[in-house]
Structures are given as structure tokens and as C-alpha cells.
């Protein structure tokens, strides 16, 4: 926002406004000279130079070497956003494994790790396994723990705004666990927890099939099938975090999704899907029956929200998945308005990517807030400050 627009206002608010606008322009617009940046933000050169000095002191901006061959005279100084100043960690925890992704402040993934978890492990043992995986992930990515400015985790089940898992039938002993608090003991930054299907929806809107859609239903096919919804580009959680949990109604056909393909495990279910893709008759029949059953629940969610797109993803969906094609064929006739039905291209990283996005949104709240002086986004917070807050997707 131009400096003159707040003429006569509180100077401290004006400084924070100028700092936030300059930082956003530098992050989103890329490297720039002083003149280019001043033009982007609508500030004078002296004001922009002063703001840049403050951002450099905070470690959020840096002066880069001039570009070679830029003409006669002294090359103009160039500035960039320091994406490496901090990091966001996304964690995907289910009954069988944990997956982690760590990204810089622009969302560029710089490392990842996955580890198996004992399906029958009690909560304490499972969290110990998650902590060990975090340590291995950060070490492999050469990221210091103190460089984490926010952490977000996804899990099956209903997650209350304070990070408590209020309902979960997938992970033994998970129900009633204040997961945000337990994970938060390992970090000095905000820790958020969200339902896995909700995070998958955020990932699809950020970097997946729903990048050009605002009203989206994400179908997350796993042990059971969960649903996440975006309305107007924003995650819709409901009052207590239970929006989209229509799979609780057995008659909608969204429970025991994996068992419908194989009574054994995900790997065996994957083999059935692969065989169906190759035209094996018995496998095709299993997929068709599963899709016919799931179609009721997917259509019910579509009729309730009237989305422009349904994205089908999760562990049971891969490129060219026959399940997506069957759902497309069976769901569309049940809907009253046209709806695009697409398969996810994010594979089993959708929940982890959504967790990274949620963590980055939390970091942005600190970087660009104007109601108080800026502080290091990775600082300690109370339990109430760690609560998940719906925020627009960048």
C-alpha cells in the first residue's frame, strides 16, 4: 500500500504496513532492484531502502550480487526474500506410518522422510516414533530444529480447534488425545493439528488438481474414506472440526474402503487396483462394486455443497486409477449440476503437503500481521495461541 495512504496515522502501524507490503512484494514477485521494488509497493525510494534495511536486519531479506553484463556504470543492487530464513514442517500420521515434508518459507520442499509405525502401538509409543522420524528428517535435510517457524500435522479423525483428536476409529488410543500439545513438547514454535482429508483438500488447492477451483470436495480414499471441503477457496471445518464426516453413516458406503478390495492390507489393495487397471476381470469387479458403494456418499457431499470440482485422492488412488474413472461414471448421474471429477496427482504426499501449507499460513499470520510489532515467528506460544485458525490459501 502506498505510504501516502496512511498520512497522519500511527507511525508504528505505518512502518509495519510498509514492511509487510515490501516483504510480500519481495517474496511473491522475486528478486528486484531498489527502484523496481519501490514501484511494486508504491513507496518512495528512501522509504523502501529503509524498510529493506529493517528486513535485512531481521534476516528476511538479503542483498544479492549485481547481475553481470548489466551495462555501463555501477550495477544496481538487487534484493531477494530469504526463503531459507525459516522452515515449515508437515507431518502425516496414520495407523501404519508417518510421512514428513520440510519446506522453506516459499513452500519449496527441501527434505522428506517416512517411517513405519506399529499399528497396535499405544499413543505414547506412536508419538515417540514420530519424534524419531522428525529428527531423522531434519538431519537428512540439514535443517536445524530452531529454524522451524511452524509445524502442522494431519491425522485421521475429527480434530477440535485446540488440536485434540475428539473422534478416531483408525489409530488405536488416539481418541481424546491432545495431539497438538503432545507434539508441541518437541518444538519451540506453533504446532497445529488437522484432519487428514482437510489437509489433502488444502494441498489440492495449493499444488494439485484444484488449483483453478474455489469450491472443492476432496475424497480421501484410505482405510475409510474421508472428505474435506473448500468453500470460496477456504477450508470449511465446521464448528467443532467435523465437517465432511458423512462417512459416519454406514449407509453412505464410505467405511472400510480398503477392506472392500482386500481384507489384508493397503499393499494387497494396491495390487487389486493395479490388476484392475490391466483389465483383470475379478479385480475390475471389485473396483466397480466399491465405486458403486462409495458413489452414494460422494454424491451426497456433492449435493450438499454443489462444488465445481471433486478430487479423488488418498493411498488407494494413483495415476490412471480405475477407481477414479468408476466414480466419475457413477457419481455424475446422481448430481443435479455439472461437476468435474478428477484424480489427485499428489500421490501419498497430499496430506504432508497440506500440512506444510497450513504451517506456512500460520507463519504468514505472524510475518504480515499489523496489530502488534513483528516478532520472530518461531517463538514460543501458549496453548490457546496454537489453536488451528482457518486462513485463506496462498
Quick recap:
By secondary structure, this protein is α/β, with parallel strands linked by helices. It contains 11 helices and 15 strands.
Key phrases:
394 residues, alpha/beta, 11 helices
How would you describe this structure to a colleague?
With 394 residues, the protein is an alpha/beta fold. Helices cover 37% and strands 19% of the residues. The chain has helices at 11-29, 34-41, 45-57, 123-141, 179-184, 196-207, 257-261, 266-277, 281-305, 322-331, 350-367; strands at 32-33, 61-64, 78-81, 87-93, 97-104, 109-116, 148-155, 158-159, 165-167, 191-195, 216-221, 225-231, 234-235, 309-313, 340-343. It has a 5-stranded mixed β-sheet with strand order 6-5-4-7-10. Strands 13-12-11-14-15 form a 5-stranded mixed β-sheet, with helices on both faces. The protein has a 3-stranded antiparallel β-sheet with strand order 1-3-2. Strand 8 and strand 9 (165-167) form a beta hairpin. Helix 8 (266-277) crosses helix 9 (281-305). Residues 1-8 and 380-394 have low confidence and may be disordered.
